Amino acid sequence: MAETWFLNREAIRDLSTLGGLAFRAVKNSEEEQSRVNPIPMDYTVLNKLRLEGKLCDVVIEVEGTKFQAHKAILCACSPYFRTLFTDTCDSAGRQEYSILGVRPDVMRLFIEHIYEHTLTVTEDNVTPLLKAAKEFSFLGVAQACIDFLKAQLCPKNCIGIWNAAESQLCPDLRHCAFRFILHNFEEVGRSSAEFLDLSLTQLCDIIGDDELNVRQEDVVFDLLLRWIEHSPSEREPCISALLPQVRLAFLDPDYFLHNIMENPLVKENSECWPMVVNARRFLQTRLVTRVFSSSPHHCPRLPNSVLLAIGGWSDRSPTNTVESYDVRANCWVNVTQEQESPRAYHGAVYLKGFVYCIGGRNEVEFFSSVRRFDPLTLTWHEAAPMHLRRCYVSAVALDGWIYAMGGFDGHIGHSSAERYEPDTNQWSLIQPMHEHRSDASATTLDGKIYICGGFNGEECISTAECYSPQTDQWTMITPMGSRRSGLGVIAYGKEVYVVGGFDGITRLRSVGAYNPLTNSWRLVPSAPSTCSNFGIALLEDRLFTVGGLETFNTADCAQCYDRKTGQWSKVERMVFARGALSCCVVMGLPNTTQYAAPRDSKS
């Protein structure tokens, strides 16, 4: 086959060179072919030709709107068009094709995407765009639509997206939307108009799922009734299918008596009443036996969030113990990975899917090291170490960064602070605090870091300060009402709570709350027991304290405070007594069962 060469004057001066080039090209054709980069396609030129109607050999007609294009270009981009243009007997001479079921604006987006490599997805076009992308086999466009819909999920539209994913055969999007419904069920059920249009099968699938996230089971029955009341004559008989999906044995006893047993729909339904009688019997014995069965009535749902209690000092030595608290079953599960080394007086934060254990100490060494735990695989890995050794460190996560402040290196206490960027695996120093602080505690609120109390090398202190990442500056705030080291600090509502600690003489059970707007403190009901160096975390809008150091022992107790009621209550004790531990909350895990109590045996 003849080839045409286009050469300039300099290239043809030496014919021997040209001959040599030609010879090598023939002799080593396979080798040379592999070395030559493909000629780049200039889509700007192709798009200009399309817009000018030049060399176009096909017209796509959609609802009266016509789009000129090039068959070869469309065939190269889509199996749909390749089949359309080649699998008919008149395809060679045919120039115009009508396509049904696609909006003109959507077809324009596809044509522009092919020629200009651009795509604008909006709330208005995403559904028809996804439908057409699936039909035309444009996988990249379909994925862009799916990603857009995932990002748009909210309580008011998640059911509609779930339905769209089902109709468009998008299993990943369907799974994502369904999990969103489960994890935000109460808000979805109360605020979404789409909730009232669910089919019976869909509602059963939702409320029967173990991952349904409700703090109180009575929410499920209340929303079930709301769905029925939307169309009572048609839906009242559905109570017999819906009631088995409610975890009846985990309802509040008073609610069960007045809202279930006395409900006319339940009482008058012959299929429902035996379930109620059986659930009442189990409800009376559950708190004593704590037996969970495979029956939906008698099995607590899986928690959406779990509290992890990590490391600490147990008996006379540090430990590597990790326990998770199952708030639905009110019990602790040992998830310790034995290969991990012991660590106490450290910090723990959850960020971007990982738990970071920062600083601390073992029996002989003070750490600058950082360990990263992957809750999906239950494995530990090393992260970059801090600039300084920091035992008794205060650690928080804010805006994608981890901050480590103060601490003790075995010789001196620190006023310095540093922050870690997970994407680069690097620590950088920030402005130091006004005071040396070890055994302090910190939290974040409204984009700022608050650190309170601690030990300055001479005494326990009552001072507190606030850090602004925007200005890289620390500001002293009103001191606490008492000296506290080994305290717990956490943002709760719009206030900063300080709990317990040690004042240099005794361990405390007093609690205070700081209001940043007024720069003032107020007293909060005291904790049930005196303690220091406990874990503290916020779980389902309740403040939990876990373990700690008592006067002579390490503690295994756990308790929680509800600001709505102003009451403290005890929760199940940990399996292992520990102080100097650290806690954090992990949510939305696909493998929650590994952190939850077994649902078919005694826990």
UniProtKB/TrEMBL annotation:
UniProt keyword annotation of Repeat present: yes
Transmembrane segments: none
Pfam families: BACK (PF07707), BTB (PF00651), Kelch_1 (PF01344)
InterPro entries: BACK (IPR011705), BTB-kelch_protein (IPR017096), BTB/POZ_dom (IPR000210), Kelch-typ_b-propeller (IPR015915), Kelch_1 (IPR006652), SKP1/BTB/POZ_sf (IPR011333)
Residue span, BTB domain: 56-123
Domain of life: Eukaryota
Ion transport is among the record's keywords: no
Protein name, per record: BTB domain-containing protein
Organism the protein comes from: Albula glossodonta (roundjaw bonefish)
